Amino acid sequence: MSERAAPVWPAEFAERYRAAGWWRGETFGEMLRQRAEAHPDRIAIVDPVAGSRWTYADLDRRADRLAAGLLSRGIAKGDKVVVQLPNIAEFFEVIFALFRIGALPVFALPAHRESEITYFCEFTGAVAYVVAAEHGGYDYRALAAKTRANVTTLRHVFVAQGDPGEFEALSEVAEEPVGYGGPRPDDLAFLQLSGGSTGVPKLIPRTHDDYIYSLWGSNEICAVDENSVYLCVLPAAHNFPLSSPGSLGTLYAGGRVVLCPAPAPEVAFPLIEREGVTITGLVPPLALLWTEAAPGTAHDLSSLDVLLVGGAKFSEEAARRVRPALGCTLQQVFGMAEGLVNYTRLDDPVETIVTTQGRPISPDDEILVVDDQDREVAPGETGHLLTRGPYTIRGYWNAPEHNARSFTEDGFYRTGDIVRITESGHIVVEGRAKDQINRGGEKIAAEEVENHILAHPAVHDANVVAEPDPYLGERVCAYVILRSGAGPLKAVAIKRFVRERGLAAYKVPDRVEFVDVFPQTGVGKVSKKDLRNAAARTGASSAPPAPSPVPAPAPAAPSH
Ligand code: OOB
Questions:
Q1: What gap in Å lies between CA 337 and CA 339, rounded to an integer?
Q2: Is residue 197 in contact with ligand 1, taking CB distance under 6 Å?
Q3: Phi, psi (deg, nearest 5) at residue 92
Q4: Which of 209, 281, 399, 542 is deepest in the core (most CB within 10 A)?
Q5: 312 lines ligand 1 (CB under 6 A)
Q6: Residue 172, Cα to own-chain centre: how many angstroms?
Q7: In whole angstroms, what is the distance from residue 438 CA to residue 465 CA?
Q8: Is residue 77 part of a domain?
Q9: Residues 419 and 449 in one domain
Q10: CATH code at position 378
Q11: pLDDT tens per residue, range 427-486
Q12: Residue 240 lies in a domain
């Protein structure tokens, strides 16, 4: 991996992180082997839809056999493989097989469509793409066929579960294990997706060393051990359910991961009871939904000790309702796929738990709060959050121009979040400087959506901003200026156009407003601030509240 492709920690930092014991010199492949040797018969993965219960020995053997089959198909160390799977057991078989041979999963979400998938495959030069045949009423084989036609590097499509159609069934790939040289602990393990604020998503290179630290660091803070049962509700590939402490943290601890096929209480609550789930993680809209549903449920939720809530700001009022409704401890999580993760501690005073977004995992996480000129603000004042540390990347993958903007010269990541630090050292998220919409935890880069709208022949200019939403926190509002002479156009035409360009549904504008001009700042730039204010004045949340509780449009993920 060249320096340019993935900026790494300077040697003196790497040495420091090793000497401090944060980087343990482990890889994911070896980690699973050790767990399988230590407790082969303990259940690692429960997939309730398929009815499978894989022990650690099962997962280890499957990963080995799949690794052998992938190798014999020419997939080798350093190759990129786009993995787009729902919450099914094969997700773990695939990623551990890839970890073992040192090929890099590129984590896509089930909601991604042609626009995103083609980009991930092209940008990474992916040699393979792994999908489920069908999920949530969508046929991923059709998406794979289009992708393969578009992307010349793509040699293989593997289909997990269901009829593979013209492609190869994942279950046919496995072979007798062979010997192979695995990756080193400081090699890249995978490419994660950034929430992004630019036209195309950026890829986040994570190493075995740094990611594994974030796992065991999280486990200590969230009290995850071999008795923990983690319910994976959010899409498994997202950084929050994957590692905070998530399914990989749980596997590191020797616990059990239960895959939840959908986030609705009707689906999750019976699983909590049946499997004795002790810990799970949700985005705020789902946490609200669960808190509302819990008092009326017939299911026994008493095994649940900890509910992690993060991905977007959780309001204090909602946070206060968690323990009374669900009988468990709330842990707020403020994290990012680029690295830094903050948690409120289980023994923090209630006031801290409900009013802050926690503090960093590591004593070596460096936090700076600065003004627009990168000068540190006075303690307790609000400013931009910059961070550097043992599990925060030093640059995006293959993106030198972005890196020059997103990182300071001495390697601090510009999170784009506006925060303040309390006297107790806890972080409170006060806002955001990045041009992004956080739709119930799902991150949407305004520029990406704007570019798609601008491709419409009748559109002269477009600006996309967040508008407040009582349930999702924010939703997507597009302001559009039509070309002079373009006939009248309906909002739905713009929405349909964007959807048909193959953009994930959560990025399609919830509202489209046609205007003649955009408000401007003093220097003549478009004032997104004024547009946001306009959206807030005229949007859905300014209307009188609906008479009955809104049925929740299940937010699939906090993400990209
Ligand atoms: C998580 O990761 P990403 O990469 O999808 O998004 C990161 C961004 C943060 O920079 C911040 O803007 C926002 O999401 N965010 C929060 C938050 N947690 C994340 N904003 C306010 N309050 C919070 N609690 O979203 C993520 C990754 C790991 C663990 C948890 C969340």
A1: 5
A2: no
A3: -75, -35
A4: 281
A5: yes
A6: 30
A7: 10
A8: yes
A9: no
A10: 3.40.50.12780
A11: 999 999 999 999 999 999 999 999 999 999 999 999 999 999 999 999 999 999 999 998
A12: no
